[in-house]
Design goal:
Elements lengths: L1 E5 H11 L14 E6 L3 E7 L3 E8 L1 E3 L7 E5 H9 L6 E6 L3 E6 L2 E6 L16 E6 H9 L17 E7 L2 E7 L3 E8 L6 E6 H9 L6 E6 L3 E5 L3 E6 L8 H4 L6 E6 H15 L5 E7 L2 E8 L3 E8 L1 E2 L3 E6 H9 L5 E6 L6 E5 L5 E5 L9
Antiparallel strand pairs: 1-5, 1-7, 2-3, 2-6, 3-4, 4-17, 7-8, 8-9, 10-15, 11-12, 11-14, 12-13, 13-26, 15-16, 16-17, 18-22, 18-24, 19-20, 19-23, 20-21, 24-25, 25-26
Length: about 375
């Protein structure tokens, strides 16, 4: 088997499929990349058994009768070499029964091949659900929620995913780790009603791969999901579980409210959080007489305090996880941040003043509790 393709496309394909290859794997062959060809297409495949990626590119292909049409090569070494080749020149791959030879100009590198039959196949998805949406919308919904998922291995599986909730001509992404909740919504006329949980790792991969297309097809069969463009396919298992009833967590009414300029609030929080992250991670917000005081204490070392103006009825003090508060506010696409509150221990609702497409809920902390 002999393949020629532009090195830039070779490297892009390797970078894309490499997003699912992990340093630690129970099966050593999963640290490699499968290369498969047909008449005009070269397909690169990688998997970690939970997520998989296929990236197809065009190239010149020569296959003699009886020759194999696929091989497995070591990913890390291959990518490192290809990344140092000239991107604007052609790179050649020669495959024998046991060797893969990579050539460009006078450069030549040989790798041992692995048996392609031992490589885990990506599952075929029965197309029971198909939704087509703009790529930028899918990525924005993901960015607005993925930070609120739990990254802890011991967490409930539902907390390690993002709820895909489409109904009433709206697509909603919701994520929670039980201490905070992020909600992002985008109207899509005629979208079919569906509800499933996508692993955060799958959506993280989607946000990192390089694709040129402006729209993406989402295909699911209730157990698996695939994000498809003409050249890139990302496949993942879905999370089989019951997502918490998020609508019950969102306060229906707020006894107190405060409106704060985002460009004043975020820098102040960032500075105070420097102290908080070194100790309890807590930030104290005190709303009183139009002033919002932001404080953190590093016991026996230092303390910090900031003050910004607010408009509203709030007259109370709350203790919040500093980093989680900043994460939630940073995704608000509005000049004015609105806090909706009922008591120092009830969930706090945070949103933009004129934008209802994004909502963040954060649980206050007790004075005696550390995170």
């Amino acid at each position: 088997m002999k393949i020629k393709l532009l090195n830039k496309e070779f490297l892009t394909a390797l970078n894309n499929v490499g997003k699912v290859i992990t340093a630690k794997t129970i099966d050593p062959i999963l640290s490699n990349v499968l290369i498969r060809v047909d008449d005009t297409d070269i397909t690169f495949i990688a998997t970690n058994l939970e997520q998989g990626i296929k990236n197809t590119v065009k190239g010149d292909i020569e296959i003699e009768p009886g020759e194999l049409k696929e091989t497995v090569l070591p990913f890390a070494l291959l990518r490192e070499i290809i990344s140092k080749f000239n991107n604007e020149e052609q790179t050649e791959i020669l495959v024998t029964s046991d060797k893969g030879i990579i050539k460009q100009g006078t450069s030549e590198y040989k790798f041992n091949c692995f048996n392609a039959n031992a490589f885990a196949l990506l599952p075929e998805i029965e197309e029971k659900i198909k939704i087509t949406i703009p790529m930028k919308i899918l990525k924005k919904l993901t960015e607005n929620t993925i930070f609120a998922t739990s990254k802890r291995e011991e967490s409930r599986k539902e907390f390690k995913g993002i709820l895909f909730d489409s109904k009433d001509n709206n697509l909603r992404f919701i994520a929670t780790d039980s201490t905070c909740l992020a909600f992002s919504n985008f109207p899509i006329e005629g979208i079919q009603e569906e509800l499933f949980i996508i692993p955060w790792k799958a959506l993280d991969v989607l946000g990192k791969v390089e694709v040129k297309e402006e729209v993406i097809d989402i295909i699911s069969d209730k157990n698996q999901i695939s994000f498809n463009t003409p050249n890139v396919n990302i496949i993942s298992l879905l999370i089989n579980g019951s997502f918490p009833p998020y609508e019950a967590v969102i306060p229906k009414e707020d006894e107190f409210y405060a409106e704060v300029r985002k460009d004043e609030l975020l820098p102040a929080l960032d500075r105070v959080e420097v102290l908080a992250r070194s100790s309890t991670k807590k930030i104290v917000l005190t709303f009183s007489a139009g002033n919002l005081n932001i404080e953190a204490v590093l016991p026996e070392i230092s303390e910090g305090k900031e003050s910004v103006k607010f408009e509203g009825t709030a007259e109370l003090s709350v203790i919040l996880h500093g980093e989680k508060l900043i994460n939630g506010i940073s995704h608000i696409n509005d000049d004015i941040v609105v806090f909706g509150m009922n008591s120092p221990l009830h969930p706090i609702k945070i949103k933009g003043k004129s934008d209802d497409s994004y909502l963040y809920i954060i649980m206050p902390q007790k004075k005696s509790t550390t995170i």
